[in-house]
Amino acid sequence: MNSATQTLRPQIDRVRRAWRGSPMPAFMAWWGGELRALLPARWQAFFRGGDVWCLLRHEDSLWRVHRSGQKESAPPWSDALDAPAQQAMLNTAVAGVDRQDLRLALCLPPEGVLRRRLLLPEAARDNLRQIGAYEMDRQTPFRTEQVYYDLREVRGSAPAGRIAAELIAAPRALVDAKLERLRNAGIAIDAVDLCDGDARLGVNLLPPEMARVHRDPRRRLNLALAAAAIVLLLLCLGEWLHNRQEALAAMQSQVDDMRADAQKISELHKQLEDSSGAAGFLAHRKTDSVAVVDVLQDLTARIPDDTWLERFTIDSSGRVGIQGQSAKAASLIDTLQSSKQITGANFQGVIQRDPATNKERFYMDAQLRMPSTKPASSSSAGAAR
């Protein structure tokens, strides 16, 4: 174990304890089991993975091994066999376990182990092994260098601000004797533990420097798969953002087209209003004005036959100009007084006699009579000459 690993070990152990104390491991195990149950039977073993603990016990010169949590099924073998024979028996007992997942734990007999329950401050949770070394002299008749020990947190009632823990210690002589037998047989173990029924208790009496290091060949593959998953996730997020941007651009284009169409419609509406206003203005002027034909017809009916007109004008304000010759020009004022089309007839200037025709030349002003009722629509009046 290198110095970097030793420096980080307290932090790693703290993370492991926090993870094991949380409900996440049980949830992940349940979830993984449910997902594996959906796979074909021949694929389920491939995706099972994880550490598989097998418990090794030595009783009456016999070695017995079984999976943690299962009943003993493999036949025992004598420790008097040579190393290859013992290894063959062990391989037969763990034949169904992948070598990369196999973990061996030496289970000590309960009578050879000392167990003490302790109440510790909560601050001791992150340094249980060191606390175990301090408590060894107080709780056991042994010194630290005489035993293999471990301290684990246990579930149970404890006063506020304190935690319940259990100190487990075994004499080094007992453990070393069994470890020596295993070394002679060529069998390496990963932990020294106790049996809790058919399962392991969950402690490791081996000190950290004696722990076996496993090189997981699947770790590199798992890291590559995790990196690939992250890259795919980022690609999916990028594709999603790209699609959203394209959809936004398409919507913006549609909005611009609709805005342009709305602008055209607004312009057409304005042109229609202007055209309607102009047409209404002309219609209004037409209805508010007197037809020139009617004025001429009225004058023709009223002026005598010895009178003729040389010039007749009507301007935009309805002012009428009449110029002509008559045998009796002065009588025209009375003649036009009863006209329904013009009013206010009056001579402009003096009446002069034309020597060529022996008629009286006159120029007369008048004003058109506008209609008394006006329609709602607007129109324009025209002038005729």
Label the CATH architecture of the largest domain. Answer: 2-Layer Sandwich
DSSP strand tally: 14
How many domains make up the 3D coordinates? 3
Structural class: alpha+beta
User: Radius of gyration, rounded?
Assistant: 59 Å
- Mean pLDDT, all residues: 82
Strand content: 15-25%
Q: What do we call the CATH topology of the largest domain? A: Nucleotidyltransferase, domain 5
Overall body shape: rod-shaped
Strand neighbour order, sheet with most strands: 3-2-1-4-8-9
CATH class of the largest domain: Alpha Beta
Number of helices, where a helix is a run of at least 4 consecutive DSSP H or I residues:
9
Helix content: 40-55%
Order of helices and strands: HHHEEEHEEHEEHEEHHEEHEEE
Q: Which spans have pLDDT < 50 for at least 5 consecutive residues?
A: 373-385
Distance between the termini: 122 Å
> What summary fits the major beta sheet?
6 strands, mixed
Protein name: Fimbrial assembly protein
Transmembrane segments: 221-241
Coiled coil: 248-275
Keywords: Coiled coil, Membrane, Transmembrane, Transmembrane helix
Topology record:
Layout: H1 3-21, H2 24-37, H3 41-44, E1 52-59, E2 62-67, E3 77-78, H4 83-93, E4 102-108, E5 114-121, H5 128-139, E6 147-153, E7 162-171, H6 172-184, E8 191-196, E9 199-200, H7 218-288, H8 292-302, E10 307-314, E11 319-326, H9 332-337, E12 342-347, E13 352-354, E14 359-368
Parallel strand pairs: 1-4, 4-8
Antiparallel strand pairs: 1-2, 2-3, 5-7, 6-7, 8-9, 10-11, 11-14, 12-14, 13-14
Account of the 3D structure:
- The protein is of the alpha+beta class and 385 residues long.
- 42% of the residues lie in helices and 24% in strands.
- It has helices at 3-21, 24-37, 41-44, 83-93, 128-139, 172-184, 218-288, 292-302, 332-337; strands spanning 52-59, 62-67, 77-78, 102-108, 114-121, 147-153, 162-171, 191-196, 199-200, 307-314, 319-326, 342-347, 352-354, 359-368.
- A 6-stranded mixed beta sheet has the order 3-2-1-4-8-9, covered by helices on one side. Strands 10, 11, 12, 13 and 14 form a 5-stranded antiparallel beta sheet that branches. Strands 5-7-6 form a 3-stranded antiparallel beta sheet.
